[in-house]
TrEMBL record:
Comp. bias intervals (Low complexity): 357-366
Biased composition (Basic residues): 1-11
Annotated Basic and acidic residues bias: 343-356
The protein's name: Uncharacterized protein
Region (Disordered): 1-55, 343-372
Biased composition (Polar residues): 44-54
Length: 439
C-alpha cells in the first residue's frame, strides 16, 4: 500500500468513554481512575437522583435486542454543519463552536425530556435508535480504544501502537461476529446485528478511523476488507430474512448502513484502497435494493451514496478511471485480499437475472458454483475469516495492546516519568476494565 496521501483529520465524539448509564458527553479526558470510584461533582437534587435511579432500574430490565433512543452523534452534527458551509459559507458555525452551540443544547434538552434511553415507540419517527446490547458494546469499544492510546497514560511506546490496538479490538469483534454467524440460536441474526451496528458507530466516533489508518503494512487493508465482508454477510442475512425493507424489524437498518458509508467513502484518499474497499459499492446496492431512505441515515448519507456510485476502489474523485500503472502491487499475494477480489469479481461477472448476486441473495451457490457452508454465505465469510485468522497467526485479537493489561513494570518503563500511571488502581479493577477517564 502506498503511503497515505494526506493525514486524516481528527473526528470528535460527542459521547466518549463512559458506563452505560452515564449522562456525560464530554470527550476531553486527562487522568484515569477506577470506574467504581466515579464520584461526580454534582448539584443534583434528591428528585434528580431518584429519577436517575429509576432510569437505571428500567435499563436493567432491557433485553439485549430491545431498541432504545440514543443521542445524535456529534460527528453527524459536524457533518451537517459542513454541508451547510458547502452550500452557504456564511450560515455555518465555526468548528470549535459546534459542540456548545449545535450539539450540547439539543442533547441537554433531550435528557430533560426523557428521550435518552427511552423506547423508540415513545418517539415515533426518531431515527437515532440502537439495540440495547449494541449500545453497551459501543460504549465498551470506546473504552477499550482509550486503553490502547499511550497519550492517555502520558507515555510513548511505538508510533503505530494505537493503530495496532484499534485493529486488535476490531478483530475481537470479528471473532464475536463469526461466533454469532455460526450460531444455531434463533437470535443469530440479532446478535450479528448487535456487533455490526456497534462497530459501525464506534468507528465513526472520536479519532478512531484516523488512528486505525495510521498503521502500516497489510494490517489495515486486510482488516478493512474483513470488516466489509462481515457487513455484506450481515446484509445478505437480513435480506434472506425478508427484512431488507423500509419497515424492517431492524429499525436502524438505514442508519447502520450509513455508518459504514461514512467510515469508508474517502479511505482511498488516505492510501487504504484496492480490493479492501470493493465492498462499498455493494453496500450502496443493498441500500437501494431495500428502498431505504437516505434521510433515515446520517446527514451526509445521500451525498455519500451519490459519490460511491461513481468512484472506484483507487480514486476518491468521481468518474476517474483506475490507473493501472499506479495500482499497489504489494499485496497481490495476500490470501485474504485475493479471496475478496475473487468474490467481488464473481459478483460483477454473474448474470444479475440468474442470481441477483450484485446485492447478495439467498442462492445456495457461491460465485464459483460451489455449495456454501451457510445458506446466506453468499460473500464467502467462512473462508475469508478462516484465511484472515491463519494470516494473523499466532494470534488474532486479544489484549496485547491494552495498556491496562501491561504489568506495572512495563507501564513504568514507557511512561515519561518512569512511574506506573495506574499505580493507585487495584489489579482487580485493571483486570475487569474498570479504569475510567475523568475530565
Amino acid at each position: 500500500m502506498p503511503p497515505a496521501k494526506k493525514q486524516k483529520s481528527s473526528r470528535h465524539s460527542g459521547v466518549s468513554t463512559q458506563d452505560a448509564h452515564s449522562d456525560s458527553s464530554d470527550s476531553a479526558f486527562e487522568s484515569v481512575r477506577p470506574r467504581k470510584n466515579n464520584k461526580r461533582k454534582s448539584t443534583e437534587s434528591a428528585s434528580d437522583e431518584s429519577q436517575n435511579a429509576s432510569k437505571r432500574v428500567e435499563l436493567e430490565k432491557l433485553a439485549p435486542y430491545d431498541y432504545v433512543c440514543i443521542p445524535r452523534p456529534l460527528f453527524d452534527v459536524e457533518g451537517e454543519n459542513w454541508l451547510t458551509w458547502s452550500i452557504n459559507p456564511s450560515a455555518h458555525v465555526e468548528e470549535e463552536d459546534v459542540y456548545n452551540k449545535l450539539y450540547k443544547p439539543k442533547w441537554e434538552q433531550e435528557k430533560k425530556d426523557g428521550v435518552y434511553m427511552s423506547p423508540p415507540e415513545n418517539h415515533p419517527g426518531r431515527k437515532w435508535v440502537m439495540m440495547w446490547g449494541a449500545w453497551l458494546k459501543r460504549n465498551f469499544l470506546i473504552q477499550k480504544a482509550e486503553y490502547c492510546d499511550p497519550d492517555n497514560f502520558h507515555m510513548h511506546i511505538y508510533t503505530d501502537w494505537t493503530s495496532w490496538g484499534i485493529i486488535e479490538i476490531g478483530e475481537n469483534m470479528m471473532i464475536e461476529f463469526n461466533k454469532a454467524y455460526q450460531s444455531k440460536e434463533p437470535t443469530r441474526l440479532e446478535e450479528m446485528w448487535v456487533i455490526i451496528s456497534a462497530v459501525g458507530l464506534w468507528l465513526n466516533e472520536g479519532n478512531c478511523v484516523s488512528q486505525l489508518i495510521e498503521g502500516e503494512a497489510e494490517d489495515v487493508p486486510m482488516f478493512i476488507g474483513l470488516l466489509g465482508c462481515a457487513l455484506l454477510t450481515t446484509l445478505a442475512a437480513v435480506e434472506k430474512a425478508g427484512e431488507l425493507k423500509p419497515d424492517s424489524r431492524f429499525i436502524d437498518l438505514a442508519l447502520v448502513i450509513a455508518y459504514y458509508m461514512e467510515v469508508s467513502y474517502d479511505l482511498p484518499a488516505y492510501g487504504v484502497e484496492g480490493d479492501c474497499v470493493a465492498w462499498r459499492k455493494h453496500v450502496v446496492s443493498y441500500f437501494e435494493k431495500g428502498n431505504l431512505d437516505p434521510a433515515k441515515g446520517l446527514s451526509t448519507t445521500k451525498l455519500r451514496i451519490e459519490k460511491l456510485k461513481k468512484v472506484n476502489n483507487y480514486n476518491e474523485e468521481a468518474d476517474v478511471p483506475n490507473s493501472v500503472a499506479n495500482l499497489p502491487v504489494t499485496y497481490d499475494d495476500n490470501p485474504v485480499l485475493k479471496l475478496i477480489r475473487e468474490e467481488d469479481n464473481g459478483k460483477e461477472n454473474e448474470h444479475p437475472k440468474a442470481t441477483d448476486k450484485t446485492s447478495g441473495s439467498s442462492n445456495l451457490k457461491s460465485s464459483k458454483g460451489k455449495n456454501t457452508e451457510k445458506e446466506d454465505d453468499v460473500w464467502n465469510w467462512v473462508k475469508v475469516f478462516q484465511t484472515y485468522k491463519k494470516r494473523r497467526e499466532p494470534i488474532m485479537g486479544g489484549e496485547q495492546y491494552d495498556i491496562t493489561k501491561m504489568t506495572r513494570a512495563e507501564r513504568a518503563k514507557w511512561a515519561f516519568n518512569h512511574k506506573d500511571p495506574l499505580a493507585d488502581i487495584p489489579a482487580k479493577d485493571l483486570k475487569n476494565n474498570l479504569v475510567d477517564f475523568k475530565p
